[in-house]
Amino acid sequence: MGKCGIGVKIGDDINRQLLHRLGGIFDTHQILASVLYREIYSRDGSYFDIKPEVIVRPDTPQQVQQLLAIASEAGVNVTFRTGGTSLSGQSVNEGIICELRTAWKKSEVRDHGRKIWFEPGLTAHQINTILKKYQTRIGPDPASAIAAMMGGILSNNSSGMQTGTRYNSYHTLSAIEFMLANGHRYNSSVAADRQRFEQEEEWLCQGLLRIREQILKNDEIRNRIIEKYKIKNVTGYSMNAFVDFEHPMDIFAHLLIGGEGTLGFIVSAELNTLPLMPVYSSAMLYFKDATQAAASAALLGESGDDGLCCPQQPGKPSGITPGDDSYADRLWCTVAGRNAGYGKTSTAPAEEIGWYGRYGRVHPYGERAGKAVGGP
Q: What is the pLDDT averaged over residues 263-283?
């Protein structure tokens, strides 16, 4: 065993030359090389156990730039880590763990809450707390929102139960600032950076455009990509970027979303936000069998509902019998937080809402902006 800093034991297997180089740039508290820390950071939310060489906590983009240069010269991999909640091992690595959890906390609400700019070290919960006063929220809502940080959420293209594909990180991205492995830094919303990206990364841009051309020329591949990304698909790179965008900067910016840090470092990003409904309500719909319930899924999805859950064996409400006309005439409906009454439950007669056989239908109700859902 050796020592790093004051009384900190390091393993005999550590790259001491690398540690010496890092010590010339970073303060002692920014470098974690003890046996204990390397053991702690060999795990995330997954079952993997991969011990890193060293953990570094940079505070600025300039320090990240220097870290990438050292790693490149030493031939060591760099893995970016924020919350470390990954279930698939995205934040473990044998090389350098670049942790952004302790700094990178800046944010700025823009356009009266319609957009928010942030650095990667904030959790989704913290971002939504900042937006709450503006009655907005971000689209991604992973179950680990209280711990998952924005760097990982963007890198994994996280979504969640309510988000689906429409409001995930990819589709709500407004702008992104990133750094490539060569240390070059760009912002997708800055015109000068877009032009500089094409000039300084000419080889990369040409490669992106060649891939796009090959995809668009092959109808089978193009249509397969379009269909594939209509549903949740976060396996591999976001290949739909080649279909959705023309400019190499826009293509690359959206490849970073879901790229798991393999293409570059996300310095900051800006997301478009969604309205935060003051009240949410729900309804239980009854169907004759699972086939009819499944057949209604698309219609219910288009109604504006934030979520849909279909039990395998739906029961029946107390005191209500299937076929009971009183229930059909005064069915319960809800607008899932999207009507003028903010999702208040209604007992409007079925004929005013819209009826389809004896099994639920979605239909506009009066002048409400939302959709009413009903069915015995």
A: 89
